[in-house]
Amino acid sequence: MVRMAAYFLAQLKRARKLAPAQLAASFLICACAGALVYLLVAQGVLDAGGTRYRIGMVGDLSDSYLGFGIAALQEMDDSRFMIELVGMSEAEAEDAFARGELYAVMRVPEGLMDAVVSGENDSLITYTPAEGQKGLGTMVMGEITGIASTLVTSSQSAIFAMQRVLIEEGRVDEVNRATDRLNLSLINLVLSRNGFGEVEILGYADGLSMKLYYFCSVFLLLLLFAGLMNCAFFARRSMALARFLKARGVGAFGQILGEYLAYLGLVFLGLFSLSLPMAFLLERERIGIPEWEGMGAFPFWGFLRTLFPVVLMFAAMQFFLFEAAEGMVNGILLQFLCGAGMGYLAGYFYPAAFFPERMRMIGGFLPTGAAARYVEEGLFGGASAGAATAVFVYLAGFFALAVLVRKRRIGRE
Amino acid sequence: MIRETIIRIWLLQKRLLKRRSFFLLLCLAPLFAAGVGRLSGEAAGIATVALYLPEGDGTAEEISRRLFHDESVLRYLPCRDEEEARACVESKEADAAWIFAEDMEERLKELAVRRRVRPVVTVLERRESVPLILGREILAAAIYPSFSYAVYEGYVREELGMEEMTEEALRAAYEQAAVEGSLFQMVYPDETPGEAEDYSYVQAPLRGILAIWLTFCGLASALWFMRDEEKGVYERMPVRKRLSASYMACAVFLADASVVMLIAVKLSGVFTDWKSEIVSCFVFAACVTAFVNLLRLFCRTPQRLGTALLPLGAAMLALCPVFLNLQHFRAGKMLLPPWYYLQSIHNVRYLYLMAAYTAVLVLLSLLLQRIRRSV
């Protein structure tokens, strides 16, 4: 026991040597996050209205109907809150696109309005997204253009059908007047299309708001990847020393326990150094989280208490991964892949609700899923026995596995 | 010289692949990509909507057909009645419920005659959110074709005074005049149409995750070289030759990782074509080699480089278009190799930019090494 304590103290000394680097990294993260938030605020992205996607419109915009259509979209339609359409020349658009100022460039082909009026629709509006490859943003944009297309083609169909009926009835002279009237009616109806649904918002507060969800996710991710920041702790470990210690009565369990507790000290130091500026910002109400509004940093301290078992579990997992990977280089790769993979499946990047059923189920069973559930329940007054058990079972499991791997290594001559 | 280089590459490669754990680690990336790719085939959506559509109503059936299509970003749960739809929302199974009126067809006709938009669907939402706002637009667009038909029908009968026209005649005129197809087409800068890529948003971030993984492989290789340097493996090599040795060690490490990444991208379902994938991956690996070596020279010790891993990983996750595509911070993005790679898939301009950035990094490394030697 005494030797075990001595070994722990030796490890603690090693951890203390790494503490300045740990603090520097935390400072770097805070500085980067601060710069990011400052720039977002300066550019108005975090304003109440949120960000509007700027789309460059290029091509033949000379038609008065098209000009009216764009103006109507920007002035009257609900889409004006999400999209900003800016008419520009091809060169201007190319330039702005290359500078990353546009979300997409839309090219209006020559004679588009003639094609729309005649119902040919053979010249398509093409758009080039800023995203390098298809992603959630382009898929949402595809949905929006699909909606716009449906609204236009359905209106076209109604007008052309009406014109056809009039022509078949021999009332050709009435076509223009009737077309204008039906057109106006349809434009009015399109602009008020959201009235088809009577919206009733139930206002259930049993789930986290998006802001709190991502706030928790960022903390969980930092804890999940803490092994990368502390990889130096796992460098220069020799099995000769482990065998020597075993011979002196400090077995695999004692070694792992001593190292783990010292490592925990590093992880907590990192968490603490990141929490202080966060608490300061919350106290000053610079971070607006709906659930914590008007409460300053008080709920944040409760959140940190909730995180405590998760810190223990993630640290044990990182410990096991470094132990299993043999060497720091392999350990880093394993840490990243396991962290990114498990974090993704458990909904740390996209909410888990976005995923298919089976993927959500797998994500829920993973250590990251158990941690997310524990934290979410913890924020609503206390984690259930099931969530707490899952976290502690993983903690014990990873610890036991780390001990087993060390034992095997010590035994391997 | 060439023979010596080949021998060195061969020895480095042999040393790497001799370690079973390294080989197994490389296999994890394709396994993860293939797993997510396979799981993403199931129904998913950025919001789940419980849907109640009355049975036997023609309009409701048309709307249902428009809503249930493969490309939808919403997931629908068909319900037998209004209570079931409500229960789905209350039990958190769904984020919203769209409960259509029992007499949908008649209500739409009635509204169409008056040319007014009034509620025909009860939209229950747990709480307001961006996906559900988009959902309301999707709902309106699904109803609108039936409504515009009803407006046309009402207009012809009431306004144009053709009450005697039969339903069949009106329908036939409409179907003959109906305009089909989309007005929009997504194209990438290399003229590839958007439809050429057939995968869901669940798979979309995989390329980005793998790109960051490759960067981490590069960082790990730099650490590997630094550890070797500490152990005295390169003791007999003159310091001026160390940079090329480090480039070689990283290149060998990244060559294996690049092959694995290509396989993983193929298995994940976000693959484009062999030629562009190989070219992009090759330039990316070269860029990562130069990037990690410059970082190695800056950090000097494995401890410092290790400490930089988390801030760097966080920066890559936030600034590269993996999960979100921020329109700002271009200067920050341009420092990160995965950003160029992810943008270069359909835009050859970024491939050239990535090559130019690689050249800048190499020059900076040479300069830094010279300064270090002269100090």
Mean pLDDT of chain A: 82
- The rough form of chain B would be described as elongated
How big is the Rg of chain B? 29 Å
Low-confidence runs of chain B (pLDDT<50, min 5 residues)? Answer: none
SSE series of chain B: HHEHEHEHEHHEHHHHHHH
The largest interface is: A-B, 135 and 132 residues
Brief characterization of the structure:
Chain A has 413 residues and is of the alpha/beta class. In chain A, 66% of the residues lie in helices and 7% in strands.
What are the key terms here?
A: alpha/beta; abc type-2 transporter like fold; 2 domains; four-stranded mixed beta sheet; 15 helices; B: 375 residues; alpha/beta; 65% helix; 6% strand; elongated
Describe this structure in words.
The complex is a heterodimer of chains A (about 425) and B (about 375). Chain A is of the alpha/beta class and about 425 residues long. Chain A has two domains: about 1-40 and about 210-410, no CATH class; about 55-190, abc type-2 transporter like fold, CATH 3.40.1710. Chain A has 15 helices and five strands. Chain A has a four-stranded mixed sheet with strand order 2-1-3-4, with helices on one face. In chain A, strand 1, helix 2 and strand 2 form a beta-alpha-beta unit. In chain A, helix 9 (about 240-245) crosses helix 15, helix 10 crosses helix 15 and helix 14 (about 365-380) runs antiparallel to helix 15. The longest helix of chain A has about 40 residues, at about 1-40. Chain A is elongated. Chain A starts with a helix and ends with a helix. The mean pLDDT of chain A is about 80. With about 375 residues, chain B is of the alpha/beta class. Chain B has two domains: about 1-40 and about 200-375, no CATH class; about 45-195, D-Maltodextrin-Binding Protein, domain 2 (3-Layer(aba) Sandwich), CATH 3.40.190. Helices cover about 65% and strands about 5% of the residues of chain B. Chain B is built from 14 helices and five strands. Chain B has helices at about 1-20, 20-40, 60-65, 80-90, 105-115, 130-160, 165-175, 205-230, 240-270, 275-300, 300-320, 330-335, 335-345, 350-375; strands spanning about 45-50, 75-80, 95-100, 120-125, 185. Chain B is elongated. In chain B, about 50% of the residues are buried. The interface between A and B is large, with 135 and 132 residues. Strand 4 of chain A pairs parallel with strand 5 of chain B, so a sheet runs across the interface.
